[in-house]
Structure to design on (496 residues):
């Protein structure tokens, strides 16, 4: 059976770089490796759903990916509990005093900028378990042996479901919950990287950053003010790389 | 905050008995305990989707449950891989020689009737992880501390995601993947029971068996021939209890 890898592609920079890594693992085969990749995207009723789907399709086209699955998780917005899916909750913006200007190197990250105990309102309850579960269901049917997810541990423990322990526990669960002859592993190649390192790696891999979308609020021009825009902006700045998208 | 429990209610006998158990745990409070229960149902494009949803609604009404969430998992049928969701695959029927006539007591179950290594076509890839993940998302938002699921270990290891080790691993995962102040536990009270014991317990709890649906094939009159109908039939027979639904 063909060596297939499922890649969770949201349309943001992390998943785009992850797709670039997955693509790279097959490049040495020398053959048309695009058919080794299977891209999975979830609409979960988030504010920028259409824009993210558009990015997903364009990134898939960029890599020539034929196996695609787009799923609707409307219930995630129905249950609410997150400012990403509940239009009555405000998306947080970074205040001046928490500007990430001191993110010069990973060693210098001041702990007060990454509050250990406060889970932000942009946390979507148990989202990654839901995304990975559908990834496993699909991988088991198409016979994929790997699932790539672009979680970045810099966000942890603010987002509890981005921690290495979480991925480990998920791998144990999927081994127990699938057929005896199914062998799937979840890989999170960015998990121990800082965001600016992700951008650097993406630039080395020539990933299509111009096709990605990060803004939590807008779907025409990125707002430049929400948490995600700020993180993206700072990551590109620290990496010394030009962000190819436009801002308001 | 109110002591809430999410119950996964498919509409079958196992989840109905599980709802009865969850209901019982609140009965001793003496107050209107129906508001302690939150019923979750998933449509996943299975053949008998409408009939199962109808059973869900009726069982919810029976227990006076106000918190209800119905989610569509259309993608499970889109990816296929199961005879429950893929209309081009046949739902298996029990052959004469594998009739469960020797299921007189749990000790007498002949191993050849429960092939250890063969996962049936009715297995829906990693389904329970998907169902429990949405259960956790909802539980975290509404502040529920328990999630009841009616998996029965008699089916294991034919269905890998019904094993006690799977539930244990899932509990570990949810602890890691939710907010630090979230405390949710998945309970599978039927997991170590035989199906006929489930029926006996249900009868003791006066659960509404007449509202349940088990048939994998039909949604008007139960076929009486598919694996699920056979299991139900044998379970009622062994329990010495009359099955209140009609068959073809």
């Amino acid at each position: 059976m063909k060596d297939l890898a499922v890649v969770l592609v949201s349309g943001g920079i992390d998943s785009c770089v992850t797709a670039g890594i997955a693509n790279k693992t097959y490049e040495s085969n020398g053959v048309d490796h695009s058919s080794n990749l299977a891209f999975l995207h979830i609409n979960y009723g988030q504010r920028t759903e259409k824009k993210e789907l558009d990015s997903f399709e364009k990134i898939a086209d960029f890599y020539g990916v034929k196996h695609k699955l787009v799923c609707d998780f409307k219930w995630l917005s129905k249950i609410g509990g997150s400012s990403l899916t509940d239009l009555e909750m405000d998306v947080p913006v970074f205040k001046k005093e928490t500007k990430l200007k001191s993110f010069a190197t990973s060693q210098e990250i001041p702990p007060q900028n990454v509050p250990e105990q406060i889970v932000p309102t942009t946390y979507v309850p148990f989202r990654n378990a839901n995304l990975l579960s559908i990834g496993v269901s699909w991988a088991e049917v198409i016979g994929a042996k790997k699932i790539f997810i672009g979680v970045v541990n810099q966000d942890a423990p603010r987002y509890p479901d981005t921690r290495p322990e979480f991925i480990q526990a998920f791998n144990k669960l999927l081994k127990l919950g699938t057929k005896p002859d199914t062998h799937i592993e979840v890989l999170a190649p960015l998990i121990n990287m800082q965001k600016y390192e992700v951008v650097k790696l993406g630039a080395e891999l020539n990933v299509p950053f111009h096709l990605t979308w990060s803004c939590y609020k807008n779907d025409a021009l990125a707002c430049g003010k929400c948490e995600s825009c700020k993180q993206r902006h700072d990551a590109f700045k620290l990496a010394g790389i030009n962000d190819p998208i436009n801002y308001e």
Q: What stands out?
A: Chain B has a mean pLDDT of 83.
